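TL;DR need structure tokens for one chain.
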Amino acid sequence: MEPQFDFALAARTLADVVAGIPDDRLDALTPCEDTTVRQVLAHVVGLTEAFRQAATKESVGRSEPPILDSPLAVDWRTLIPAQLAALTEAWRVPAAWDGDAEAGGIVLPAAIMATVALDEVTVHAWDLAVATGQSVTVDPDHLAILLDFLRDTDPDGTPGLFGPVVAVPDAAPAFDRLLGLTGRDPGWRPAAIAADRRV
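>> reply
TL;DR here they are.
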């Protein structure tokens, strides 16, 4: 099967956000409940490699659920961009989109697994950006793919993946609606940054 989309723009966005994270924000909270920037970065290290292996099929029969509270690799600033580049290249191979793919102990049709990966890369870029005073721009084609993918999300959320859906007006920007479907409040800001903006 030919690739249905390219990860390059989403991967570059996340890599740029990672590059802009100062050391003094690593223990700041993110929109993910009770989760710090450091913990989200550790999760990103794991997921970028897991989804690369899903594309190459090397994880079939041997992937495991992600480990919560994994320590953050000391070389995360170079490791994450390198793994994002490798993930992007892996999903450019037509065979990556054939058959089933496996990541985190879950087996899905490869095209669906790729969309899950795109969602993870896109939404965690926002999580990290908003927690560290940055902003992100999402490719409109990616937004359309993800909104279609998530349109039937259970309002109660998906345990281990998304929290309960946050109500967002139909007229809100597409990215805000996407964030709401993943259980995030598009208006969330860390307390320190929100206070600075009120001054």
